[in-house]
Amino acid sequence: MYETLAVVGATGAVGRIVLEQLQKRDLPFRKLKLLASQRSAGSEVRYAGETIKVGLLEPGAFNNVDLVIASTPDEVSADFAPYAVKEGAVVVDESGYWRMDPKVPLIIPEVNPEAVDKHDGILASPNCSTTQMVVALAPLHRAARIRRVVVSTYQATSGAGLSGNVELNDSVRSALVGKTHPPKTFQHPIGFNLIPQIGSHKYEGYTSEEMKMVYETRKIFGDDEIQVCPTCVRVPVATGHSESILVETEKPLSVEEAIELFNGFDGITVVDDLANMQYPMPRDCDGKDDVFVGRIRKDISSPNGIAFWCVSDNLRKGAATNAVQIAELMMKQSSK
Ligand code: 2RA
User: Fold this and answer.
1) What atom in ligand 1 is closest to the CA of residue 212?
2) Which atom of ligand 1 is nearest to the CA of 159?
3) Mean pLDDT of 54-63
4) Which of 37, 93, 181, 298 lies at a 20 to 30 A Cα distance from 329?
5) Is residue 85 domain-shared with residue 193, that is, in the same domain?
6) Which atom, in ligand 1's list, is nearest to the CA of 156?
7) Distance 128 CA to ligand 1 centre (A)
């Protein structure tokens, strides 16, 4: 049993779900420490019937902490993770800062659990758009080896944090009375709109969010030959990222085989009955931990292709749930 577990960023949108997941999954630790930056330090959070005061994230805060689950912006993680490790803690980090560091394993417990065995104190959880796609691709990759993926995302405003959802509400309300709410979190008004830009320009006309889907997918599968062509779009949906995915495999797969593979994989739920209007939608997946797939069909434009639709709660499997599952895996390994 771990003595002390710390949650950094406990008052944020993802941090709150981390706390809910810790209770739901009943992780074995004795003491919970909550930490946050200056703005939220000193506030109080309810956990398991107790009130816990949020401490300040600063050097010295991790003495006697065994494991940390952190949900903070990249620059905060870049700053605190090294001193947390020096003070003796292992950090499960949800920010983008460490993901592509060769010494840091990038983990989805259903896909590459073995990666937790080798680390220097920091373990990373992938970006939300990558996580749900890679979970869905994993059974197909294992059975038929993926060569190429073409993916378009429809990403919820909560991916940009609590301010994203505030801006969605403000933008929709303004639009309904013929006004424009000036955007701050997003590049353009999000109410009744779609924005084909998430992040900033990164490589050859692709954004940082899109290149995460390329690099992180290869790292998790340990296969640099997988080709990924992503387009990431922000949509006026509060929670739940959706993805239209076309995958080409080395070995051809029938639709029936793909459905059987999806059904046999932990963490995937198939909702696929077009005739009865059944397919995954963000409002049905909100608050659920699985990755949902549907509209599974053959690519009629080329051989060896399967097309499908994938939805997941971006704050859960895309962030909090995956990080808590990594922590759970670490705890299981250490008790062996
Ligand atoms: C977004 N994927 O949806 C990002 C959050 N990590 O903005």
Assistant:
1) 2
2) 3
3) 97
4) 37
5) no
6) 3
7) 6
Residue nearest (by alpha carbon) to ligand 1 atom 5: 159
What confidence category does residue 299 fall into, taking pLDDT thresholds of 50, 70 and 90? Answer: very high
Flag whether the pTM goes above 0.90: yes
pLDDT of residue 144 exceeding 80, the answer is yes
To the query of whether residue 241 is one of the catalytic residues in this protein, the response is: yes
Q: How far is CA 268 from CA 6, 246, 280, 293, 300, in A?
A: 29, 17, 11, 7, 25
Residues above pLDDT 90, as percent of the chain: 95
Question: What is the chain's mean pLDDT, rounded?
Answer: 97
Which pLDDT band, with edges at 50, 70 and 90, does 2 fall under? confident
Q: What are the strands, taking DSSP E only, across the chain?
A: 2-8, 29-36, 44-47, 50-53, 55-56, 67-70, 90-93, 122-124, 146-155, 201-203, 206-207, 227-234, 241-249, 268-270, 291-298, 305-312
Total count of domains within the chain: 2
Instruction: Determine if residue 314 is labeled as part of a ligand binding site.
Output: yes
Query: Which is catalytic among the residues 128, 232, 285, 310?
Result: 128
Co-location of 118 and 143 in the same domain: no
What is the pLDDT at residue 146?
98
Q: Residue 45: pLDDT band by 50, 70, 90 thresholds?
A: very high
Residue 324, domain CATH: 3.40.50.720
71 and 140 within one domain: no
Which residue owns the Cα nearest ligand 1 atom 7? 159
Residue identifier of the C-alpha nearest atom 4 of ligand 1: 159
The boundaries of the domain holding residue 269 are: 130-313
Q: Which pair of tokens denotes residue 242?
A: 């959706």
Backbone torsions φ then ψ of 149, nearest 5 degrees: -135, 130
Q: Is the pLDDT confidence value at 20 over 80? A: yes
Ligand 1: lining residues by beta carbon, under 6 Å: 127-129, 155, 159-160, 198, 209
For residue 14, say whether it is annotated as part of any ligand binding site: yes
The answer to whether 296 touches 262, Cβ cutoff 8 Å, is yes
